[in-house]
Design goal:
Number of helices: 17
Protein name: FAD-binding PCMH-type domain-containing protein
Largest sheet: 7 strands, antiparallel
Radius of gyration: 24 Å
Keywords: Cell wall, Disulfide bond, FAD, Flavoprotein, Glycoprotein, Nucleotide-binding, Oxidoreductase, Secreted, Signal
Helix content: 25-40%
Strand content: 15-25%
Bound molecules: flavin-adenine dinucleotide, 2-acetamido-2-deoxy-beta-D-glucopyranose
Strand order of the largest sheet: 15-12-14-13-17-18-16
InterPro entries: BBE, FAD-bd_PCMH, FAD-bd_PCMH-like_sf, FAD-bd_PCMH_sub1, FAD-bd_PCMH_sub2, Oxid_FAD_bind_N
Family: Belongs to the oxygen-dependent FAD-linked oxidoreductase family.
Mean pLDDT: 92
Organism: Hibiscus trionum (Flower of an hour)
CATH class of the largest domain: Alpha Beta
């Protein structure tokens, strides 16, 4: 027995001890580099797997439950900095003790790369939720926003100070600035003012050496890269200086649904030809779902909801819609006037009665609570899809496993056609009629095989191939999809694989991103499954 026991100990204890030592060394490094006044509150800063609040801190900012399973990797340590120096210490100690590091602001990453890792390597999560101050300068129409702030907090804070200022942020109130601007970031105002990254005028970043850099000290290359080059590649962005934009005191919203029996197919088909006639100050979008999602599969039909926000009064919008899209058959009752910030609530499906809901990071719409796991993908449409193409989508949407599938279409055009593809890394500009995102949701339970849903999504994506952008088939990095590049023939090098998703997310901007990465972080400290690789990385 004795020798067997020894073998057991020797073959299995070494890696465990090593990891535990790394872990202890890292924690010692962290506590010694935090000031003594911080040590008192170290339990509010550092959560190890043994901390009683570890799971709640980890899971409170996981927006895709696909990554909270017994087999999901979990960070060794979560650090929730209260001060910039804590971020610097975490970078320094992770580097020193060979731990990987993931940065999380709002935790909305579709593939969870801000808090799970596909590799076995132990890692630390820096969670910036406490770094969320917002400083608005109404006179100069700018704001400094820390990365941990959510969209709702800025919308709310701006609305408190002005009815005619806004920010071109996300549709959903809970998305945080860190990942959103790192992805480019589009929303209600993007056809008039561009994506969020187009409206960033300065930023503060901590690089791999722990230096705090601003636009001037980081230089224009790095400042370009962080505005849409995907998060988690270049450093940790602490805060962003953004331009606020003008909106009228009153905007108009309409939302109207049509089933297949009410000619949804013909209306959608027609919509594709007229989006360019919609004024810039309009956000024309369509959500496609199926009805009777929970009963049985009989009598299901496809429903297209035409949702729009318009920067102007109803009496301007009504004749405009009558002129451009009479087929939709809107009636006066379909239109509602409200403030811009109220339109965020209405189109975000939040209860419209109190604006304070925008400040609630844990508030989620009921269907997100009911089906917290999802898989999503995105595409860009450059020529109208024929009606027969839509028929094929409907037959997939009406399959039994697709009850919770949703397609979202957001019209492009407006100023998006005028901003050059190389202005910031986000390249999806002129020539797109609309972007389409596909989502399927479910609840992980013992008897649910999530592969059914994921396979359904992949099948739909295959089906869409002839109708969407080609060479490359573009995709939005904000809707990260780890399938991309996984199975494509790429010469098998990690750089080759990266260039597959890299060209889809960034088109020709990928090469410049790689050059900048090579300069700023040649040893690839800031990395995840789809971070920008350095040459030879
Ligand atoms: C419900 C929902 C609604 C959405 N709506 C929109 C929308 O309307 N428009 C749109 O464009 N996108 C939208 N998105 C996509 C969203 O913008 C991206 O998922 C974005 O990356 C989320 O940012 P986050 O900080 O919340 O996520 P995180 O998971 O925290 O971060 C995402 C990525 O950015 C990195 N990162 C985070 N913070 C930093 C930082 N401070 N410095 C450097 N890297 C960082 C992370 O490491 C990770 O790679 C939505 C997503 C969800 C889940
Ligand atoms: C720690 O305390 C010192 C002196 O009281 C103070 O100057 C410093 O700002 C504090 N550090 C932090 C991170 O709060
Ligand atoms: C743990 O969570 C509880 C409840 O949310 C809170 O009261 C407590 O302060 C937290 N403890 C730490 C160490 O963060
Ligand atoms: C659908 O379109 C047809 C032909 O264009 C039209 O006759 C019919 O009234 C429409 N149905 C509805 C419900 O609008
Ligand atoms: C939904 O199903 C119910 C019965 O299951 C049916 O009466 C109803 O017409 C269906 N609704 C639609 C829009 O198909
Ligand atoms: C489906 O609709 C048809 C008529 O459209 C109706 O006769 C039938 O009862 C419905 N089935 C269910 C399950 O509701
Ligand atoms: C925020 O939303 C959550 C989830 O809906 C709810 O439980 C909580 O009470 C809300 N918090 C506040 C302050 O309203």
């Amino acid at each position: 027995m004795f020798p067997v026991f020894l073998i057991f100990v020797f073959s299995f204890s070494w890696p465990i001890t090593s990891s535990a030592n790394t872990h202890q060394d890292f924690l010692r490094c962290l506590s010694s580099s935090l000031n003594s006044n911080d040590s008192a509150s170290i339990s509010r800063l550092v959560y190890t797997q043994r901390s009683s609040n570890y799971s709640s801190v980890l899971e409170s900012r996981i927006h895709n439950s696909r990554f909270i399973t017994p087999t999901s990797t979990r960070p060794l340590v979560i650090v929730t900095p209260l001060h910039v120096s804590h971020v610097q210490s975490t970078i320094r100690c992770s580097k020193k003790h060979g731990l990987q590091l993931r940065t999380r602001s709002g935790g909305h990453d579709f593939e969870g790369v801000s808090y799970v890792s596909e590799s076995e390597a132990p890692f630390v999560v820096v969670d910036l939720a406490n770094l969320r101050s917002i400083d608005i300068d109404v006179e100069n129409e700018v704001a400094w926003v820390q990365s941990g702030a959510i969209m709702g907090e800025l919308y709310y804070a701006v609305a408190q100070k002005s009815r005619t200022l806004a920010f071109p942020g996300a549709l959903c109130h809970g998305v945080a600035f860190g990942g959103f601007i790192s992805s480019g970031g589009y929303g209600l105002l993007f056809r008039k003012y561009g994506i969020a990254a187009d409206n960033v005028v300065d930023a503060e970043l901590i690089d791999v050496k722990g230096r705090i850099l601003n636009r001037k000290s980081m230089g224009e290359d790095l400042f370009w890269a962080i505005r849409g080059g995907g998060g988690g590649s270049f450093g940790i962005v602490l805060s962003w200086k953004v331009k606020l934009v003008r909106v009228p005191e009153i905007v108009t919203v309409f939302s109207t649904s049509r089933t297949l029996e009410q000619n949804a197919t013909q209306l959608l088909h027609r919509w594709q030809y007229i989006t360019s006639q919609f004024p810039d100050g309009m956000f024309p979008s369509i959500t496609i779902t199926t009805t009777n999602t929970t009963v049985d599969n009989r009598n299901r039909t496809v429903v297209a909801s035409f949702n729009t926000m318009f920067l102007g009064r109803a009496n301007e919008l009504i004749p405009l819609m009558q002129n451009i899209f009479p087929e939709l058959g809107l009636t006066v009752q379909d239109y509602s006037e409200m403030s811009f910030v109220e339109s965020i609530l209405v189109l975000g499906q939040l209860p419209p009665e109190n604006l304070e809901i925008l400040l609630n990071r844990s508030y989620r719409i009921s269907y997100l609570v009911a089906t917290p796991s999802f898989k999503a993908k995105s595409d860009y449409i450059k020529k109208p899809i024929p009606e027969i193409g839509f028929q094929g989508i409907w037959s997939q949407l009406l399959e039994p496993e697709a009850r919770t599938a949703t397609l979202n279409l957001a019209a492009y055009g407006g100023i998006m056609d005028e901003i050059p593809e190389s202005a910031v890394p986000y390249p999806h500009r002129n020539g797109n009629i609309y972007e389409i995102s596909y989502t399927i949701r479910w609840r992980e339970e013992d008897n649910v095989d999530s592969e059914i849903y994921i396979s359904w999504m992949r099948k739909l994506y295959d089906y869409m191939t002839p109708f969407v952008s080609k060479s490359p088939r573009e995709a939005y990095v904000g809707y990260r999809d780890l399938d991309i590049g996984r199975n494509e023939d790429d010469g098998q090098t990690s750089y080759g694989r990266a260039s597959v998703w890299g060209r889809k997310y960034y088109k020709n901007n990928f090469d410049r991103l790689v050059k900048i990465k090579t300069m700023i972080d040649p040893h690839n400290f800031f990395r995840h499954e789809q971070s920008i690789p350095p040459y030879f990385g």
